[in-house]
Every structure is written in structure tokens, then in C-alpha cells.
Amino acid sequence: MQNLSVKAGRLPAVIQIPSSKSYANRALILASINKKEIVLKNMPQASDVTFLVTALQQIGLEIIAVGSDLTVLNYFPACEKKSDLTIEVGEGGTTARFLASLLILGNRKYTLALGERLKLRPWKEFLKLAADLGVFASLEDHLLVVQGPIKKIESIEVDCSETTQFASGLQLALAYSQPTVAPMNLSASQSYFEMTQFMIGELGKNQEFVVPMDWSSASFPMCFAALSHEIFFPGLKYDPLQSDAKLFHILKDLGCLKEDQRGITVFPGATQMSLNLDVSDCLDLVPALGFLLSHIDGIHTLTGVKNLEHKESHRLEEIVKLIKEFGKEAVGDGSKLIITGNTLGRVSAKNLKFPNDHRMVMAGALFLRLHQGGRIYPAEAVTKSY
Questions:
Q1: Is pLDDT above 90 for 254?
Q2: pLDDT digits (tens, 9 = 90+) for 16-47
């Protein structure tokens, strides 16, 4: 694990945002079951995506990389190898859950080695779904074992109260076959499931897909720009299928965003305004929002934060701790996060240590940059997104 020195000061005036791993991992699963050759362009280098590409190659898919473009030449389960496999999947929720959903189509036994935090995140629903589909699945410590194939049934209901990723994973893996997937309790992350349906349509009729820019990654420098100085994001467009694009409307309301054909520009705006936001559909946005709102005078209430405890860390606790570290007030009770923001002076240099959670490390770096700098740990956590 490494630490990184972060200096106080401005960010670049122009920032190119990487492409979306949410789109990319959905595209990879759909390409893996498509009998046609599929070309995926502008693929991100985030570790969640590279782990999935490597895993797909291990199970027999032939994937050719040219720059940031990937071509998938064959399909699963026709490409399935004869031997059982153990596959490292890191800490990525979509990586492991989408892959596990794909593997139920096969005949071999697959063991997924989950990351330390990922093994603690919700898996109960997948184990239940596997049993309902006639698939063997077990989770012991960090090892998830899956062996298909699924039995023929007409439909299956998926509980989405804790995560939509199992519903999306099954919807992707079963996109061109039975059974149909019926999401239940879809109160959070609705846009992610809509993204899944959109991608099924796109790769059902096209053999090429260009991955859009990532609003989750964009949110961090955009929030910094709203407090510090003007930054231009070339080519970035509002995308209703990316839940973190809700920030577009928040920054508009704060009077610090303008959009044209070239991209989006963010600049300092309102310094006093109390906001009430339901973030149940954009939980990954909360660390960046915590940074932004803690520096705007007012009492800000974020509701729908319960599932933050199931992220790469207990993210609600970590956000509250980080905000308090910089002299701001925050309280999280499991159902809501209340931030009392202020525009008071800059805190002296800090040393920040987080769990292996990329979004918390990125949020911490923003605080250091806006204040008086310091050191942050673990720096390599951000490879999950960048």
C-alpha cells in the first residue's frame, strides 16, 4: 500500500474524463454471449474492467486489444474450457456479480476469489437465485463457487433492495435466452437497471459500441471546480442512464455549470444554500457531494444513504469522519446524512488514511487540495476507477 503527497492548489483548467466502467462491464458480458464478433471502443483501463477482461479470457473468450478498443471473437458457453478454474476478481461489485451471473450458463466449476471487502458485501440474494435456477453456488470466506448450467424456467424474481447488480447481471447473461428477469423492490439505482436494458438493445442490434464518459469519475473534479476555479470537461454530456449525472442538475441549481456542444464547464457558484437530496439512486456520488456541501454555508440533508454501508468501505461512517477531520459538521444515522457546511478558512496539512475505497481516497484528495495539502493512503485504490 502506498501513500501520496497532495499539494494544495488548483487542478488543470481542462480535464479529460475516462470512459464509464458501468457501461464497459455491461458491454463485456453482452459481447461474451453474442454469437457475432463484437467491437467495444473507448474502453476504460479501470481495474474493475481489466479484472473482468482477464477473467473472460480465462474462461475461454478470445479478446483482442488494440489501444483502447477490444474485439470479442467468440462466445460463452461454447468457448468453455474443459478444466475447472479459480479466478481472481478483485474488489469490483459489477466485475464479480456480472461474471458470476454469466458463469451459471456454463457446465464447469468456477471459483471466484473475492477481495477482502467484496466478500462482506451482499451475496445472499445471488445464492438464493442460484438455488432457484438449479445452479450450485456456495460462499466460504472469500471463495465463491459456481457450477451450472441453469434449469429451464420461464421467469425469476430478483430482490433489488440491497443492490441491483444481481438483477442486472442476470438480465445481461440471459439477454438472448430464457428465463426473463423480474426486478423487485427496485427503489434504488433505477437508472443502472435502465442502463442494462439500454445496453441489451444496443448490442442486440449493433456489433460495435463506443463507451461514454464516466460521470462517477467526473463528479470529483467537477465538485472541486464548483468551489475553486473554472474547469472545462471536453466531450462530457449529460447522460440520464448514469445515476451520478444527477450532479449535472445539482450544479445547475448552484449556478456553476454551463453546457455547450464542446462539453461542460464548471465554475464557482453559490456559497450559501441548504439542499435536500434523495441520493438512493446515486450513492457513488455521495463522497464528492460530501466534499462539496461541507464547504457551502447551509444545512444539507441527504436521504436514502442506508446502502452506503455495503460499499468498498462502510462509506457513510468514512464520509462523516472525513468531513469532521476538516472542521465541518456531519451526522449519519443510517437513513440520512446531515452536513452543516461553512466557507470558513483552510485547515492545516493532514495525513489521511482510508480503507481500500477508491471514492473515499478521491474525496480525501479533494479536501487536501482545497485546504493545505498533506498525504493520503492508500493511493493505489483509485485504480479501481482511473
A1: yes
A2: 999 999 999 999 999 999 999 999 999 999 99
* 124's grid cell: 445472499
Distance, in Å, from the CA atom of 217 to the CA atom of 385, rounded to the nearest integer, reads 7
pTM above 0.85, yes or no: yes
For residues 146-157, average pLDDT: 89
Q: What is the rounded distance in angstroms from the CA atom of residue 24 to the CA atom of residue 98?
A: 12
Query: Furthest-apart CA pair in the chain: how many Å?
Result: 64
pLDDT at 189 over 70: no
Q: How far is CA 61 from the centre of its chain?
A: 24
Task: Give the closest residue to 162 by CA, choosing from 311, 332, 353, 322.
Answer: 311
Predicted confidence band of residue 221 (pLDDT cuts 50, 70, 90): very high
User: Angle 315-325/358-370 helices, nearest 10 degrees?
Assistant: 10
Could you tell me where the beta strands, DSSP code E, fall in the chain? 4-6, 38-41, 63-66, 69-72, 85-90, 109-114, 136-140, 143-147, 155-159, 180-184, 208-210, 231-234, 257-260, 263-266, 276-278, 298-303, 329-332, 336-341, 350-353, 374-377
CB 72 within 8 A of CB 120: no
What letter represents residue 28's amino acid?
L
84 C-beta neighbours (distance < 10 Å), count: 11
C-alpha grid cell, residue 118: 467484496
